[in-house]
Amino acid sequence: MKAVVVYESLWGNTAAIAKAIAEGVGPDARALSTDEATTDALAGADLVVAGAPLLGFNLPTEEMRKSIGSNPTMPDADLAHPSMRSWLEGLPKGSGRAAGFETRIWWSPGSAAKKIAAGLENAGYSAATTEKFLVTGRYGPLKDGELDRARAWGAKLAQEV
Question: pLDDT, tens digit, for every residue of 60-76?
């Protein structure tokens, strides 16, 4: 089974979750940033899992990312990769199963994962499920146990495919 886990990660939390999901899926699964997840990297994928942080109750927008980059009171964010929104907009048609995930604080309304799943479905993938992984503060770190939970979710997704 070919599986790819794609992520937008600003403070490292979503990247860590993506890597744990890929570990759970199996040894051949790859965790890739949005710029690494090219058409060639996705070709023939049986499972595509994509995730991003939840910001402002939504999937981050370009305006949010610009604001983060220009705000000296925020921790440094990794803005070197395309946003999940732009990656989804350029996603070529595909088939196979898909799932969306997000990193978030526990009480936040809204969902980035649902937007991601909808974007994957629009590209022809069958969205299997969505999942939320928690951070302890606004910018992290991940809540204890979330990496283990991500590995278990990855294994469950692989079993469903």
Answer: 999 999 898 888 888 89
